[in-house]
C-alpha cells in the first residue's frame, strides 16, 4: 500500500495510516505536471531578468535589493544556512517525517516554482526514512516556520543532522552511504522550502490524532468510574441529548450507554440517588464539547495540509502568468485552531481528575475504602495519585494560555504581526501528554475501584477492558511505586492512538 500525494486531498486519516503502517509515498502524474509548469515560470523570470521577490531579490527587509544573476542559487543556500537557527529539543521523528510529507504536498500544488529534483529529494528522504533533526523552538509562525523548515532543508542539501536507522548522524554521511547526491538548490527553491506552516501543522496533526484518541479512550475509563460509583444511566438517555442539537454530545451519550450495557453496577434515577454529580452526569456535555473542538481542528488542519502557503505564489493559467507576493505563510488560522485544541484537551483532564477524586474521597465514594487503601492508615493507597493528577491539571491551565494572542515584530518591522502558531502546537502536545497521564491515573484507580465492587458485575464491554488493562497494571494489594503503573498505562494508551480506525 502506498500513499499517493497530489497536493489536493491529503487527510489526517491517511497520515495516521502512513505512520502506523510505515507506508511509502508516491506522487500523482497531475502533480508532476503542475510542478514542471510552475518551474518553467521561474526559468522565464530569470531569463527575462524580472524583479520578483525571493527569486531575483533579497528577503524580508532586503526585498528591494536586486541580486546578481550569477548568485541566484547562492542566495537560496545562504537563506537556508542563515535561517537554520532553531534551538531547543528536536521535534519527534514522527513530527519531522510528517513535516516533510506536508511540505512535499504543498510543493505539488504547482504554485511554488520548485524543480522536480527537489520534489524527488523529498520523496527519497521520506521513503528512506531519513528524518531531519529539527529543533522545536525559534519559529514565530510567520513568515511561516522559517527556522524549523530551514533545518529540514539543510538535511536535503547534505548539511544537517538526520535520524537514520535509529541513529543521529550527518545527512551527507547517509547520502554517501546510499549513493545519493545532496540537493543543489536552484533559484526560488530555498524560499519554496521554508515559507510555510508545516512545522506547526505537522505537530498539530500529531496533536489531533492523539487528542481525539484520548477522547475515545476516556469514555470506557469513565464508564468504569461510573460503575464503581453506581452511577445513574438515565442522564445518558437519547431524548435528553437530541434536544440539545449537538451531534457530538449525542454520540458520546450513545457510546457511554454502549459501554455500560448490561452492567449490574449502574442504577436508575431515584433508585439510589436522584442525580449524580456533574463529573458523571454531564460526561456527554463535557466530552461532547471537546469532540466539537476536535472536529473543528480537523477541518482547519486538513485545509492547511492541502494549501499553497509559499511566497511568492505562481499562477500560470489561461495564457496569463502571475507571480504574486502575498501572505499565505501566515499561520494565524492554524494558530487559532491549535489554541482551541488545547482547551478541548484540557477539559478532558479537568473532569477526569474530578471523577478520580470521587473514587478515593471517603465522603464521596459510597462504600469504597478511603483512597482505596488496602489498609487505611498504614497504607496510603491512591492518595497521592490524586495529587499528581491535580498537579498535571493545574499545569495544563498555564499551558492553555493562547499563544496566538501574542505577537512580536521582526525583520525590522517588515514582519510586524506573527502568529506564534508553532508555540501553540508545542504547548498543545505537552498538554496532551499531561492529559494522557491524568486519564491513566483515573484508569489505575477505576480498575481498583471496580475490583472492590465486583468485576463479575461489570458490563461485558468494560469487563473486557478490565481484563486487558490488568495485564498492564496489577491489583493494589499494598503500596508500591505507582508512577510505574501510571507511565505503563499512559504508554499503552499512546500506542493505541495510531491504530484506531
UniProtKB/TrEMBL annotation:
What's a Pfam family this protein contains?
Lyase_aromatic
- The gene for this chain is hutH
Tell me what reaction this enzyme catalyses.
L-histidine = trans-urocanate + NH4(+)
Which of the seven top EC classes does this enzyme belong to?
lyase
InterPro entries reported for this sequence: Aromatic_Lyase, Fumarase/histidase_N, HutH, L-Aspartase-like, Phe/His_NH3-lyase_AS
Which EC number applies?
4.3.1.3
Cross-link entry 5-imidazolinone (Ala-Gly), positions: 142-144
The protein here is known as Histidine ammonia-lyase
Pathway assignment reads: Amino-acid degradation; L-histidine degradation into L-glutamate; N-formimidoyl-L-glutamate from L-histidine: step 1/3
Q: Output the Gene Ontology cellular-component terms.
A: cytoplasm
